[in-house]
Amino acid sequence: MDVTRDNFEESLHELSAAIKDPQFAFWSFDLEFTGLNSSSKTVFDLLDTPEERFLKVHECVKNFTVLQYGVCLFHFNPATRCWTARPFNFWVFPDTKQGADSCFGCQASSMAFLADNGFDFNKCIRKGIPYISPADQA
Q1: Residue 42, class by beta-carbon neighbours within 10 Å (0-12 exposed, 13-18 middle, 19+ buried)?
Q2: Residues 63-86: tens digit of each pLDDT
Q3: R_g over Cα of the chain
Q4: I want to staple 34 with a disulfide (CB 3.0 to 4.6 A). Which of 44, 64, 75, 88 is the partner?
Q5: 89-119 per-residue burial string, b: 16 or more CB within 10 A, e: under 16
Q6: How far apart are the C-alpha atoms of 43 and 57, rounded to whole Å?
């Protein structure tokens, strides 16, 4: 389900109901950023410890912004032994109407990847759920 500013409230109710469903088993999430890697110091290594990986990811995301937040809920029906996936794709974009005109970085390869894979930048900007970062709230 695509979640935009137009159906945000309604979608939260559906998401909540899906989590309360007794057949709910687990969830996963995925974020689409305007970039992924800000320097050679943040390149992932297979031998990174969990702490090192977290610090590298944290350093990367400080320089970019989220354009889409995906949540997928998985339900298991023991009677049929079937799994059901319920995706929720939250389109988000910084709020430009609250006085904060935030700036964020973009990485050319990430933006090209999104475009090549059908990411709708117009939907993101025009219909994205507006948000203000904690830094812009101050």
Answers
A1: middle
A2: 888 999 999 999 999 999 999 999
A3: 18
A4: 64
A5: bbbbbbbeeeeeeeeeeebeebbeebeeeee
A6: 9
The set of residues, in sequence order, having a beta carbon less than 8 Å from that of 22 and lying 6+ positions away, is: none
Query: Of the ranges 2-11, 22-31, 72-81, 90-99, which one carries the lowest mean pLDDT score?
Result: 90-99
The answer to whether the Cα torsion of 28, 88, 31, 62 is positive or negative is negative
Contacts of 86 (CB under 8 A, 6+ apart): 1, 18, 72, 73, 74, 75
Q: Global pTM?
A: 0.84
Assigned token pair, 100: 């904060």
pLDDT at 136: 67
Q: Tell how far CA 92 is from the center of its chain.
A: 8
Token digits for 50? 């969990």
- Phi, psi (5° rounding) for residue 41? -75, -20
DSSP code at position 41:
G
Assess contact for 84 and 74: CB atoms under 8 A.
Answer: yes
